[in-house]
Amino acid sequence: MSAPADTVLDRARQNAGLSHGELYLRYFELGGMSSAFQVEAIVYELAEASPHDYDVLAHALNERFVELGGDHPVPYASEP
Amino acid sequence: MADGPRTGADAVLMHLRQTAAVPSGHEVVDGALRLVVALARATVGGADGASVSLHRHGRLLTVAATDRTVYEMDAGQYLTGQGPCLSASTEGRWFYSASLEDEVRWPAFVPRARGLGINAVLSNPLVTQDQPVGALNLYSRSPQAFTDADRRLAALIAAESSTVLSEAGITASDDRLALRLTHALQARQVIAQAQGVIMERHGIDPDAAYHHLLDFSRSSHLTLLRRAGDVVASSQHRRTVVGPVPDGAA
Amino acid sequence: MTMADTELTLALTTQLSEVARALFAAGDVSSTLQTVVDLATVTIEGCDYASVFVEHPAADRRAIASDPLVARLDELQQRIGQGPCIDTLRSGQSVYVEDLAADPHWPQFGPEAAESGIRCLLVLPLSATGTFGVLNLAASFPAAYGATDRAKGVIFATLAELALTGAQTHEEEDRRADNLHQALVTRELIGRAEGILMERERITSTQAFDILRRASQHLNVKLKEVAEELVETGERPRTGPNDPARRGR
Q1: Fewer Cβ atoms within 10 Å of its own Cβ: the N or the C terminal residue of chain B?
Q2: By residue range, what is the domain housing residue B197?
Q3: Which residues have C-beta within 8 Å of that of residue A3, sequence separation ≥ 6?
Q4: Residues B53 and B144 in one domain
Q5: Is the same domain home to B75 and B131?
Q6: Per CATH, which fold does C175-233 belong to?
């Protein structure tokens, strides 16, 4: 299978040093309702995320960035 | 601070271990299946290529193949919704096409296969717990490629592979289980939200809120989830008294 | 393929799937290695003793042997820094030594090994996720392994690799299951916090999540901490400097 395209969320995931499984766990903990398979598809932009789902993912990534000493670099869907 | 209900949690956890909700050891099974296709290709006379397809995530995927052409053969079947591999993996019996030139079944699939240089196809189902979970497929560039002995051998390799899959815990219900689990997890979240609604409405703690839900669902013969859903919906409107006020509430 | 070949292949296939079955059932890494060693002497004719060791950068070296005799062989190679296992570990290539007494490759190891009772060695590389190691099949007689045995050895080693990967996955999954349990507890806490906000402010769960999320950003604390605070105290979390005043409980 060819390598997936470079996407915003996947780049963020890699910069945050999270595997897909680790990202899913954080998303799940925040109340995310989609399956791991769907989340991976969203990260690779192979599936559309609802704005809420996107925000849960974005926040999962941002909390990780804060752990690493950063701020909240991933923008939210519900931000103006 | 009291936890929410724990009874379902351990069962959910155990199932999650085995399903697509948490990435799990597919690599191991895929590795074993690569061995299977290599063995099949090497030992079944007449076989130019071999592949294994499995039902995963609600669709049929090629998890092992001896070469690119074979991947495309499988992909062609998934795309057209037709082919011996697809038939074997859904009907749970073998399908053999000795000569694609003369084949009348699978009219959408046959031209694509012949375009790739394939002239004979043999597919054996992979079965666990009496349910087909996929297929072992053998392809040949020549028609009439597989003798009776070849076909018996292929069937036997498929049977042994089915055993390996069983041992690795792959069942047809895994996919459906993953779906049921996703629903179960969603349900738990609605119940947690309903707990919060009741905690706020009646000024009680999480455990008491849970029992309130439970009691009302029992007395009204609604499922817990249905009751929770109603409670959550009621939070959106002007407050109406929904259900009996619990003892000890403010 | 002749009839005899077919029967041989069938027998081989059946035997190998039994081996696969046992290997996959083994469980953790140590049990799996033990099963590899136990099965090797039974599955491969001519193999009198077997040993296996694996190395992982993050974990200790694990070594299992079916007999002290072959364990000593491993120690010997470590001590003198010479031997077929060392070569295989370095190169990733398998090595077949027909007669240790007569092989010029290991002038020190060869004779010492032969002296201790091992004349023939088939050494196969093992690699699983991030792990490298060696499967050692030893025999008391020279030229103990025919072509079929050597082929079986290769397939056996492949199955061992797969089983090892599975065992590593098992151990990871146990850790993951613990994480998941904790995540489930937190997730439901967040759900309850959402429910409180939904009832109090007549909003949807998505809007409730947004409030928790904005508070988490503004206060620079984890969302679960915001949720916990709300559930425990009932106080509405602040989402920013211009957060409109809301009546708490």
Answers
A1: C
A2: 174-234
A3: none
A4: yes
A5: yes
A6: Arc Repressor Mutant, subunit A (1.10.10)
The residue in chain C having the minimum alpha-carbon distance to the alpha carbon of residue B146 is C1
**Which residue has better confidence, B6 or C232?**
C232
The CATH number of residue B43's host domain is 3.30.450.40
What is the number of domains present in chain B? Answer: 2
Domain-wise residue ranges, chain C:
3-166, 175-233
Partner-chain contact B182 A33, CB within 8 Å: yes
Q: What is the pTM assigned to this prediction?
A: 0.51
pLDDT tier at B239 (50, 70, 90 boundaries)? low
Residues B53 and B160 placed together within one structural domain of the fold: yes
C-alpha B246/C-alpha B248 separation (Å) is 6
CB-based contact A29 C183, cutoff 8 Å? yes
pLDDT in tens, A35-54: 777 888 889 887 889 999 99
| Residue B188 counted as domain residue | yes
Contact criterion met (CB < 8 Å) for A35 and B22: no
Tell me C24's DSSP state: H
For residue C119 the two structure tokens come to: 């004349």
Same domain, B157 and B77: yes
d(CA C8, CA C6): 5
User: Quick check: is A76 in a domain?
Assistant: no
DSSP letters spanning chain B: ------HHHHHHHHHHHHSTTS--SHHHHHHHHHHHHHHHHHHSTT-SEEEEEEEETTEEEEEEESSHHHHHHHHHHHHHT-SHHHHHHHH-S-EEES-GGG--S-TTTHHHHHHTT--EEEEEEEEETTEEEEEEEEEESSTT---HHHHHHHHHHHHHHHHHHHHTT--THHHHHHHHHHHHHHHHHHHHHHHHHHHHHHT--HHHHHHHHHHHHHHHT--HHHHHHHHHHHTTSS----SPPPTT--
Give domain C3-166's CATH architecture: 2-Layer Sandwich (3.30)
Judging contacts by C-beta atoms under 8 Å, the chain B residues touching residue C249 are 203
